[in-house]
Amino acid sequence: MTRAPHPHFLLNDGCAPGTSPTGAQPLGCNRTRPSADVPAGKRAALEALGARVVPYHRHRDRREAMVHRIALRDGQVIVPSANDHAVIAGAGTVAWEMLQEVHDLAAILVPVGGGGLTAGAALAASGQDVKVIGVEPAAADDTRRSLRAGYRVPIPPPSTIADGLGHTEPAMLPFEINRRLLADVVTVSEQAIADAMAYLWRHYRSAAEPSGAVAFAGLLQAADRLPDGPVGVVLAGGNVDWPTYRRLLDDAMEPTERSIHVAPVLR
User: Fold this and answer.
1) Which one of 15, 79, 193, 260 is at 20 to 30 Å from 229 when CA atoms are compared?
2) What SS3 state is found at 239?
3) Which residues touch 79 (CB under 8 Å, ≥6 apart)?
4) pTM for this one?
């Protein structure tokens, strides 16, 4: 397993920073986020770095329009979470590093939100005998539906504990890449996500947020359908409030014992 790089100026679905992508500290940025969804810890971390969090209503407001108004008003640059060639390439380095360390990987499981991480991983693994498989919440399966249809299919704003993956439509650039290179997309239930979080904590003391545990949930759920050989799993994020995390772990069922050998490579 490996953790995906997650720079502070970008985050899951932020947008308008005023800093160079090489800078470790934002010089000032805005980030739109549904007020009901944002974990208090994540918001506090953003504000400590100088960001101004702009809440919006998932069902009433159009986030992209809000982002463009803010950027135009304040003279800021929009950095999409997925719909950008450089962002996709940067996200793909997590798969590239996995392939450098484990040369006989049979598959890589990657969480799917806007599709940038899966697209980057698929590009990094292209030309090699490795299947890149996306995993997304069943409640937010816009990518699965879109790949089956052959075009981007919008869905209503989803309700899922994996808030970082709650997109309503795949981003355009990643979707074109995923349509060509992604081997498959599997979906997991809300319970499976919570179970994966509990499994990671109980067995490896790794605290993953729901969005970050989705790919591991896919491993636990679909292990018997994966190719023979080592499987890489991307854990992408640890942003979760302690009360929420504890509740999810308390409610989670211990997954049944499976013949899975997990060799963590946590970054």
Assistant:
1) 193
2) coil
3) 9, 10, 14, 15, 16, 17, 21, 87
4) 0.80
